[in-house]
Amino acid sequence: MSTRGQLPDLLGIAVLLLTNAAGCSSSDHSMHKLVDPNPPEVMPIELRVDVALQENDGGRQTTRCQLQIAFEPLPEYTSPGAAAAGLDPEDEPELPQVAQPEEAGTCAFSTMPPVAVQPGTGDPSDPSDPSDDGDNWQLSGAVIGPDFVDVHGLTDTWTLDATDTEHGGIRYEWPDCLVEDFPFSQALTLDVPASDDPDGVHPFEMEDFIAVGPRVLVESPASADGQMALIDPLETLSVSWTLDGRDPRVDGVPQASDVRVKIQSQDRNQVEEVRWLVCWPSKEGVLDISPEQLAPMFEGRLDSAQYSTNIDIHSELLNRDRPTPWGEALTVRTHVSAGAAFSLGEQTPTAPPD
Q1: Would you call 76 exposed, middle or buried from its count of C-beta atoms within 10 A (0-12, 13-18, 19+)?
Q2: Which of 1, 28, 102, 113 is most exposed, with the fewest beta carbons within 10 Å of its own?
């Protein structure tokens, strides 16, 4: 449904967009900046958005598929953790962060505390990704809105139903998220109808508000016949992938995704440190990781029965500075990734044919 003509009620609303990564971004808060220097005074509201698709095992397993939105009053504190605990932001301890490479063609190694001792993590594979409620990767808001909101793509519409959260909040979610129906390679328009509550969210529409990148297909290392690929850490690890689809177009301009290759090693009992290697490819679709770069990841961790190792091709897209009817320019972050587990050990040479 269209809500054009009802937008002036929203002028001046302060909005912050929050997304939870399926990986290890140093910050998962999207950016907002004031465009109108003198917006009218109305109740400030925070808008939260989470659009992500995460596949594993060569696409045979989907570990995350969601399209969610939530509305929240502007928080008193700078982070959900501080607000929940009643802490002053200056007293809140900083969460550890996975190191990121600073330029294309480089990798960054870091270690993190074991996942098992990180409370409230948004992504169980990434302690640097805090969630704002008890559900992993789930959004929650406290502002009442309509019974549903719509997200329009090129030819299809996804209806997000209002859902009560475990903590008494509310979010809007796509109830039957499936890979085959996911809005890859599209710019999406958010359409929020009027709420029955006069103090609830006002109706508004934002065109090309969310941009989703292509599906990620891992080509190597690849498993065969359901068995994990065997990787020799003393050899160069060749990684290749395909972004299966075109870049989404916002205002007629293609928007390219940003790709990182992430390797994680942890013990299966989750009591030892988690090791991370994050690489920034300098070429599209290929990356060679040297034995020297792999060495700190796998020192003392070659026993696959005791340690698990995963590789993830993580594609992130920022839809920058989208104009709003309330005088701000907003940047929205979305995530599409694919990964696989692999075993470590010396490769066994293939015997020549007789």
Answers
A1: exposed
A2: 102
